[in-house]
Amino acid sequence: AKLLQRAGHFYFSRSMGVDIRERVRLMHALRTAYEEKELFVVYQPQIDLATRKPVGAEALLRWRTKDGTFIPPDRFIPIAEYSGLIIDIGERVMREACRELVRLRDMGYSEFTISINVSQVQFRHPRFLDTLRNVIAETGAPPSRIELEITESIAMEEPDVLIQLLCQVKQTGVSIAIDDFGTGFSSLSYLQRLQADRLKIDRSFVTEITGSSRGSSIAEMVIQLGRNLGLSVVAEGVEDERQASILATLGCPLAQGYLFARPMTVDQLTTWLKDNGA
Ligand code: C2E
Ligand code: CA
Ligand code: CA
Ligand code: CA
């Protein structure tokens, strides 16, 4: 089911086919939401597992409607992709995240990184590279502190086109993380060609590590793969201390999850960073 969900709007339109009116309603509501600033970005800290200090944060989109209801990104992002609105929304997220990065740098968090999710539709749009360069130039954000998260499923289609695009993206100085790594089927040689800097272990594999089959866990394989290829690794969705300590023992450098911090607004992040000694 997870794979289907992630495969994007094709499956979305099929599975939601019966509910086309609801989809159209959401599509209109999303356009209004975009115009009226009901969309905003929250940040979830990423932690160095050895020192337990924050090293960066992932930008995550939120939609709060006027009546105060939260609509989860898993529900509205497929619609944003399907309608093309993700191009504008994604650009806004990128700009906001870069502004936040500059703000944090000016507060003295000069090493802090921001990770930005990039949808497949956005990434493949002909203007993506220009948009990225413009946002960096306008905000003055340090490219070396920006990371773009793309999913493994993006990474599998039209490898040659993608690899060329990734090359150009990397020339701007930003780094690339493969999100939800392990849920797709990309080959190892292909992974090397992608020139990714970081792998993100999907939450489903983190949940698994406290189970009985931990000796052969996928999380452990990804951590070793990262080490062998010289890539950084982040475990996502770490919810309890047992998971954190197993990951640390396995040599996983970074983690993110409710155990450390939930996604938070910019103001909350500032306070949280002060309290947690970045
Ligand atoms: P993702 O990129 O895999 O993001 C991780 C999700 O796990 C986030 O859900 C985060 O809030 C949640 N999470 C973090 N720690 C924990 C934990 O310890 N336990 C549990 N159960 N969950 C945890 P969220 O914010 O609902 O986002 C869902 C998905 O929506 C994201 O999955 C990403 O694919 C997409 N998304 C969110 N923001 C954006 C965006 O700005 N652009 C694009 N293209 N996609 C986005
Ligand atoms: Ca992500
Ligand atoms: Ca993820
Ligand atoms: Ca995930």
Automatic annotation (TrEMBL):
Residues 23-277 form the EAL domain. This is Diguanylate phosphodiesterase. It comes from Noviherbaspirillum denitrificans. The chain holds residues 469 to 746 of 747 of the full protein.
